[in-house]
Amino acid sequence: MSEPLTAEPALPPAPGADDYLALDFVNSAIALPGGHFVDLLGTPGATNRWLTERGLAPEDAGVQEMCAAQLRSLREHLRVLFAARSGGLPALPAALSAVNDALSRAPSAALLYWDERRGPYRAAPCPTNEILDRALATIAANAADLLTGPDADRLTPCGSTPCNRYLLRHGRRHWCSVRCGDRARAARAYARRTHPKAD
Fold first, then answer.
1. What's the CA gap between 155 and 113, in Å, rounded?
2. Which residues pair with 111 in a beta bridge?
3. Is it the case that residue 105 has pLDDT exceeding 70?
4. For residue 143, which of 94, 75, 91, 87 has the smallest C-alpha distance?
5. Which residues have a Cβ under 8 Å from the Cβ of 81 and sit 6 or more positions away?
6. Which of 15, 32, 94, 198 lies at a CB distance of 3.0 to 4.6 Å from 36, suitable for a disulfide?
7. Which one, of 69, 3, 10, 9, lies nearest residue 36 by Cα?
8. What is the rounded distance in angstroms from the CA atom of residue 27 to the CA atom of residue 104?
9. Mean pLDDT within 128-141
């Protein structure tokens, strides 16, 4: 497999990724034709950009490799859980443990604050040293909601090789993008031409 690329591919979000942050997160590692691989969390800078674009970190968060590695690890554990859920298989205890650990990293209660002009308001505190914990907890909570919610039965891997993205199935659609659907249809047509059924 070739060296991971970090530039964002020209792929639209998979169906459901706009609704579930965790689905978007799992799909941040993308296998492409020709042995290419795009990792949107492949470097600290790319990870900071991904988090910032989703409101999980400020632009100047200064994500370090250790933080990026923790996010990539959670992503792999979530991929394992998504594969188990969509395949009707039992979950690996290590993956469940990793998600539960991420869930417990940040306090869930929004604290009460008081602004002299606006008055009382609630907000979840997030000091700079807790940005990673908050991001991990937010992503893990969203994944838990997806895996236990009404959309869980629609979770499926993209049906086009070599794509490794997940989507929420709508009707018969099993592809994450038009590009993958076209590739799958072309592969089926090629297989029919080269391996016709015997009468």
1. 39
2. 123
3. yes
4. 75
5. 91, 92, 95, 96, 99, 143, 147
6. 32
7. 3
8. 23
9. 87
| Burial classification of residue 130, based on how many CB atoms lie within 10 Å of its CB (0-12 exposed, 13-18 middle, 19 or more buried) | middle
Q: In the chain, where does DSSP find H-type helix?
A: 21-26, 44-53, 65-87, 93-103, 131-148, 178-194
Sequence-distant (6+) residues with CB within 8 A of 163 are: 30, 31, 32, 175, 176, 180, 183
- Half-sphere exposure of residue 73, counting CA atoms within 13 Å on the CB side? 15
Contact 15, 176 (CB under 8 A): yes
pLDDT of residue 157 exceeding 80 = yes
pLDDT tens digit sequence for 83-99: 999 999 999 999 999 99
Question: Coil, helix or strand for 157?
Answer: strand
CA gap 13, 192 in Å, rounded? 30
- Structure token digits, residue 186: 């072309």
State yes or no: cis peptide before 162, omega within 30 of 0: yes
Query: Are residues 159 and 184 in contact, defined by beta-carbon separation less than 8 angstroms?
Result: yes
Could you tell me the pLDDT band of residue 8, with boundaries at 50, 70 and 90?
very low
CA distances from 59 to 27, 41, 45, 63, 139 (A): 22, 15, 10, 9, 18
Residue 70 pLDDT > 50, yes or no? yes
